[in-house]
Design brief:
single chain; 176 residues; alpha/beta; seven-stranded mixed β-sheet; Rossmann fold
Length: 176
Protein backbone atom coordinates (compact mmCIF):
# COMPACT_ATOMS: atom_id res chain seq x y z
CA UNK A 1 0.00 0.00 0.00
CA UNK A 2 1.23 3.46 -0.87
CA UNK A 3 2.15 5.91 1.86
CA UNK A 4 -0.01 8.96 1.29
CA UNK A 5 0.76 10.75 4.54
CA UNK A 6 0.38 14.47 3.97
CA UNK A 7 -1.89 14.09 0.92
CA UNK A 8 -5.19 15.98 1.18
CA UNK A 9 -8.15 14.49 -0.63
CA UNK A 10 -11.74 15.68 -0.99
CA UNK A 11 -14.36 13.02 -1.66
CA UNK A 12 -17.57 14.62 -2.89
CA UNK A 13 -20.99 13.55 -1.60
CA UNK A 14 -24.61 14.25 -2.47
CA UNK A 15 -27.78 12.25 -2.08
CA UNK A 16 -28.11 8.92 -3.88
CA UNK A 17 -24.37 8.18 -4.02
CA UNK A 18 -23.24 4.61 -4.73
CA UNK A 19 -22.20 3.22 -1.34
CA UNK A 20 -19.00 1.41 -2.33
CA UNK A 21 -17.85 4.17 -4.67
CA UNK A 22 -17.74 6.64 -1.78
CA UNK A 23 -16.70 4.47 1.17
CA UNK A 24 -14.11 2.25 -0.51
CA UNK A 25 -11.96 5.24 -1.59
CA UNK A 26 -12.47 7.04 1.75
CA UNK A 27 -11.34 4.02 3.78
CA UNK A 28 -8.49 2.98 1.47
CA UNK A 29 -7.09 6.51 1.38
CA UNK A 30 -7.33 6.88 5.15
CA UNK A 31 -5.55 3.49 5.55
CA UNK A 32 -2.76 4.87 3.36
CA UNK A 33 -2.41 7.95 5.58
CA UNK A 34 -4.19 10.55 3.46
CA UNK A 35 -6.22 13.32 5.10
CA UNK A 36 -9.69 12.72 3.62
CA UNK A 37 -12.49 15.26 3.82
CA UNK A 38 -16.02 14.38 2.75
CA UNK A 39 -17.35 17.47 0.95
CA UNK A 40 -21.01 18.15 0.25
CA UNK A 41 -23.12 21.15 -0.66
CA UNK A 42 -23.47 21.92 3.07
CA UNK A 43 -21.18 21.14 6.00
CA UNK A 44 -22.42 18.74 8.65
CA UNK A 45 -25.34 17.50 6.58
CA UNK A 46 -26.11 13.81 6.21
CA UNK A 47 -26.57 12.46 2.68
CA UNK A 48 -28.16 9.06 2.06
CA UNK A 49 -26.84 6.63 -0.52
CA UNK A 50 -28.93 4.72 -3.05
CA UNK A 51 -29.31 2.11 -0.30
CA UNK A 52 -29.96 4.64 2.51
CA UNK A 53 -26.46 4.42 4.02
CA UNK A 54 -25.57 7.79 5.56
CA UNK A 55 -22.50 9.91 4.85
CA UNK A 56 -22.01 13.13 6.77
CA UNK A 57 -20.11 15.93 5.09
CA UNK A 58 -17.12 17.34 6.94
CA UNK A 59 -17.16 20.57 4.93
CA UNK A 60 -19.14 22.41 2.30
CA UNK A 61 -17.80 22.87 -1.20
CA UNK A 62 -17.62 26.64 -0.78
CA UNK A 63 -15.38 26.20 2.30
CA UNK A 64 -12.86 23.96 0.54
CA UNK A 65 -10.18 25.46 -1.70
CA UNK A 66 -8.70 23.50 -4.60
CA UNK A 67 -5.21 24.85 -3.89
CA UNK A 68 -5.33 23.12 -0.47
CA UNK A 69 -6.01 19.71 -2.02
CA UNK A 70 -4.02 17.05 -3.82
CA UNK A 71 -7.08 15.26 -5.24
CA UNK A 72 -10.83 15.38 -5.68
CA UNK A 73 -12.75 12.10 -5.97
CA UNK A 74 -16.25 11.93 -7.41
CA UNK A 75 -18.26 8.79 -6.59
CA UNK A 76 -21.09 7.68 -8.80
CA UNK A 77 -24.61 6.56 -8.29
CA UNK A 78 -27.04 9.37 -9.01
CA UNK A 79 -25.20 11.84 -6.78
CA UNK A 80 -23.18 13.51 -9.57
CA UNK A 81 -26.43 14.70 -11.15
CA UNK A 82 -27.31 16.34 -7.81
CA UNK A 83 -23.75 17.62 -7.23
CA UNK A 84 -23.67 19.56 -10.47
CA UNK A 85 -26.73 21.53 -9.40
CA UNK A 86 -24.50 23.30 -6.86
CA UNK A 87 -22.17 25.86 -8.47
CA UNK A 88 -19.66 25.61 -5.59
CA UNK A 89 -19.23 21.87 -6.18
CA UNK A 90 -18.70 22.34 -9.91
CA UNK A 91 -16.31 25.24 -9.23
CA UNK A 92 -14.22 23.09 -6.88
CA UNK A 93 -13.81 20.41 -9.56
CA UNK A 94 -13.14 23.01 -12.26
CA UNK A 95 -10.45 24.75 -10.22
CA UNK A 96 -8.81 21.48 -9.17
CA UNK A 97 -8.65 20.44 -12.81
CA UNK A 98 -7.20 23.77 -13.90
CA UNK A 99 -4.51 23.44 -11.21
CA UNK A 100 -3.58 19.93 -12.37
CA UNK A 101 -4.77 18.26 -9.17
CA UNK A 102 -5.71 14.60 -9.35
CA UNK A 103 -9.34 14.29 -10.47
CA UNK A 104 -10.88 10.84 -10.07
CA UNK A 105 -14.42 9.86 -11.03
CA UNK A 106 -16.21 6.53 -11.18
CA UNK A 107 -19.52 5.35 -12.67
CA UNK A 108 -21.68 8.47 -13.21
CA UNK A 109 -18.94 10.65 -11.64
CA UNK A 110 -17.72 11.87 -15.04
CA UNK A 111 -20.95 13.87 -15.28
CA UNK A 112 -19.24 16.31 -12.89
CA UNK A 113 -16.19 16.35 -15.17
CA UNK A 114 -18.52 17.23 -18.07
CA UNK A 115 -20.01 20.10 -16.08
CA UNK A 116 -16.54 21.26 -15.01
CA UNK A 117 -15.49 21.31 -18.67
CA UNK A 118 -12.31 19.36 -18.12
CA UNK A 119 -12.71 16.47 -20.57
CA UNK A 120 -11.80 18.02 -23.92
CA UNK A 121 -9.29 15.72 -25.62
CA UNK A 122 -8.89 13.56 -22.50
CA UNK A 123 -9.17 9.75 -22.34
CA UNK A 124 -11.99 8.76 -19.98
CA UNK A 125 -14.38 6.00 -19.01
CA UNK A 126 -17.45 5.69 -16.83
CA UNK A 127 -20.77 3.87 -16.65
CA UNK A 128 -21.74 2.96 -20.23
CA UNK A 129 -24.97 5.00 -20.11
CA UNK A 130 -23.07 8.31 -19.86
CA UNK A 131 -20.80 7.62 -22.84
CA UNK A 132 -22.67 10.11 -25.07
CA UNK A 133 -22.41 12.83 -22.40
CA UNK A 134 -18.66 12.27 -22.05
CA UNK A 135 -18.08 12.24 -25.82
CA UNK A 136 -20.24 15.35 -26.28
CA UNK A 137 -18.09 17.07 -23.62
CA UNK A 138 -15.00 16.31 -25.71
CA UNK A 139 -13.81 13.18 -23.91
CA UNK A 140 -12.23 10.24 -25.72
CA UNK A 141 -14.22 7.24 -24.50
CA UNK A 142 -12.44 4.02 -23.57
CA UNK A 143 -14.05 0.89 -22.13
CA UNK A 144 -11.60 -0.23 -19.44
CA UNK A 145 -11.57 -0.90 -15.70
CA UNK A 146 -9.46 2.22 -15.14
CA UNK A 147 -8.43 4.89 -17.60
CA UNK A 148 -5.71 7.28 -16.57
CA UNK A 149 -4.84 10.36 -18.58
CA UNK A 150 -2.30 12.32 -16.55
CA UNK A 151 -4.04 13.69 -13.47
CA UNK A 152 -7.42 12.29 -14.62
CA UNK A 153 -8.43 8.83 -13.30
CA UNK A 154 -11.77 7.26 -14.24
CA UNK A 155 -13.51 3.90 -13.82
CA UNK A 156 -16.82 2.29 -14.76
CA UNK A 157 -18.51 0.47 -11.85
CA UNK A 158 -17.95 -0.83 -8.30
CA UNK A 159 -16.34 -3.94 -9.80
CA UNK A 160 -13.52 -1.65 -11.00
CA UNK A 161 -12.77 -0.17 -7.56
CA UNK A 162 -9.45 -2.03 -7.05
CA UNK A 163 -8.12 -0.75 -10.41
CA UNK A 164 -9.58 2.71 -9.71
CA UNK A 165 -7.73 2.93 -6.40
CA UNK A 166 -4.48 1.75 -7.99
CA UNK A 167 -4.85 4.56 -10.52
CA UNK A 168 -5.53 7.12 -7.79
CA UNK A 169 -2.58 5.94 -5.68
CA UNK A 170 -0.24 6.09 -8.69
CA UNK A 171 -1.44 9.58 -9.66
CA UNK A 172 -1.03 10.87 -6.09
CA UNK A 173 2.46 9.40 -5.72
CA UNK A 174 3.54 10.84 -9.08
CA UNK A 175 2.15 14.26 -8.10
CA UNK A 176 4.56 14.37 -5.14
Amino acid sequence: MSNLKGKRVAVLVEKLYEDLELWYPVLRLREAGADVTIVGPRAGETYLSKHDYPARSDASADEVKAQDLDAVIIPGGYSPDHMRRHPAMVDLVTQAGQMGKVLAAICHGPWMLCSARCLSGRKVTGFFAIRDDVVNAGGIWQDAACVRDGNLVTSRTPDDLPAFMQGIFAALVEAS
